[in-house]
Hints:
Strand content: 5-15%
CATH superfamily of the largest domain: Domain of unknown function DUF4159
Shape: globular
Low-confidence stretches: 1-31, 75-83
Helix content: 25-40%
Order of helices and strands: HHEHEEHEHEEEHH
CATH topology of the largest domain: Rossmann fold
Radius of gyration: 19 Å
Number of helices: 7
Amino acid sequence: MKKSPKIFMDKKFLFRTVLAAVFLGMLAAAGLSQSQRYARQRLLADVTSHRQPPEGTEFIFARIRFTSTGPGRRGFGGFGGLGNLFGGWSHDYPDAEEHILQVASEATGINLTKMSYVIVDLDDEELFRYPFAYMSEVGELNMNDREVANLREYLNRGGFVMVDDFDSQYSLDWFSAQMKRVFPDRDFVRLTVEHPIFHTFYEVPTLEVESPYVYSGPATFYGYFDESGRLSMIINHNNDIGDFWEWIDQPVYPLGPSTEALRFGVNYFIYSLTH
């Protein structure tokens, strides 16, 4: 007997409801703060509803959700089927987006609001609509063939990616191997402060910057260039610029590196729109 569409939809809704309840129960058991629980609830709601940014803004911050089963996986990435919903790709969401977008709105002439952001899957052609994309915790990245092809097409079309929130030589090597699947002949190039991306809006005087945590090495900026020499990806290694953005409204980190992280972000936005 053929199942009724209504019964099927009811079961699907029930599954999502149970999944959400289980996840929120894990949040409580994990002893997360009220703000952290709220952020996770927002993430769950935005992913399931496929939240869209406001219409009419000329800049949209696209956070990429990718297959999160790589060796750098930790935290919520380990909860079975929840790993790809709440892996490292989602770290600092949504406060990081809203804070840096608010600063960009007030400091530049770009038509945007603090809500001008979206979550998009790496294998989704929707990604092509956004010139700026953000990837977090790429030590967890383990692309399938469709994701590889979509990322290649995105970069070939002129897309720009900010890679953030990962550390260690092992994670850098892992990410490099992943990108070799996208473009086998391209390598990461260590950037110097002379590169134009550090001077598009704010003047960044030095790349010897403070990270929010103690890492195995100093913060380092790598570039990923296309065949014409265009910088298509900025890689913030041994750093977490998004974490500075997330906590800029609270006295968690020193003011100096926090404001410098905002300058990097605005420069990256402007660069993605002008190159």
